[in-house]
Predict the 3D structure of the following.
Amino acid sequence: MKVELNTLTPSPQVCVKCKGRLWCGPKCFILERFEKKQSSIGKIKGNSVQGPSPPGVFVSWSGYPKVTLSPMAPLQPINENDSWLSDDTDKWFGLGADKIISFRESLVRGSMPLEVNMAADPSYQLLEVQQALMAKKPVEVQMQLRQSPSSRSLSFSDFHPPMGPQADLKKFSLIENPSTNPKIEKVFSDTDAKALEGMVELYHSGVGVSQLHKLLSAGMLGVKKKRKLTPTRWSITAIDSNVSEYFIDEKIKYFPAIDDVRLFASNYLENYYYVLLLPRKWSYELLEAWKPGAMWNANSNEPTFMADYENYDGRSSYAQNTAGGYYAPRLAIAEYLMRIQRQSTAIVFREIGDSGTPSLGVFKCRETVRDALKKNPLSFNSLDLAMKYLGSKLTIPLKYWFKTSVLFDEFRHQKRLTDFR
């Protein structure tokens, strides 16, 4: 779906679908509400920041193919564990919003403008950043800035974590030689391997999703001459999408189906997830209900629904309605099915709370569903029983979910488990 800027009047339906992608203009009036928080830390003294980088990096999307690449370092002394945690969303589940925001407002970004193609022939300074991203633990860096950020406005996104203070970068340098992860170094040095091959190899070697998207953002994956810097909001979804699609197409579709109806649940940061697995061949649907007062539905008196789905053959286009929130749970589900060596149809119900807190990134979708799938499921011998139970847990009646769903039109009236196979 292509939407021309300045042609839309913001509305609950438009805002829930857009989620800050600026379809209605150069500024998002919803995000602007949250981007004025002033720091209690105050101004940076001088134009130099030195400390243990998580290691972290942010790549902007505005102006693509011209972007800004921004390595990060803490504004004040921080211990090694907190430094790594401040930019590792794989380990954030259970942390409160205030804790996450405090992590992010403590990291300063030193931004340098680059062409995305520079990753194919990186400058010395870009190589220094890439070297830091291969580290096994936080690495001591120094950033010389062209000015001293005096206002600590935070920026929020539905895709990536909040971002803190920013200033133009004059020089980035490593203070120490980092101890690198040999698996990452091997993939980075392989100039002929495709990006997907590198993603899967590193995933299997234990490199987390959070670190994978940084490597992709910094242009460290793929055939050398084709490497590009990738905006962070795109790289996060690319990792979720590509890794899960690989497992689904290459492994999961060849497993036998589960033999019962399973229901999993978890909640975090006002996101309530119910994952329904059915004994059928692979298909997947995400159903979202944004309550009145939820971040992207703040000006409505009614819940707003969004949905995307795929059948056994997969999708041929981006999940425009639910965006990154579609692919993050799909990865968590693929991980579960890989563990149990089975396939199923998966329908995910997501209810988003009404307090209007700012979004902290799509990580919450992946990690909440991961948490749900670590628990023992409720098992049912019929879909009717499962739906009756689920209906007692959802705050929005099932009939509204059914109107939104595509997959339920195909099989929700089937009565026997053998009908699902």
Observations:
- DSSP finds 14 helices and twelve strands in the chain.
- The chain has a mean pLDDT of 89.
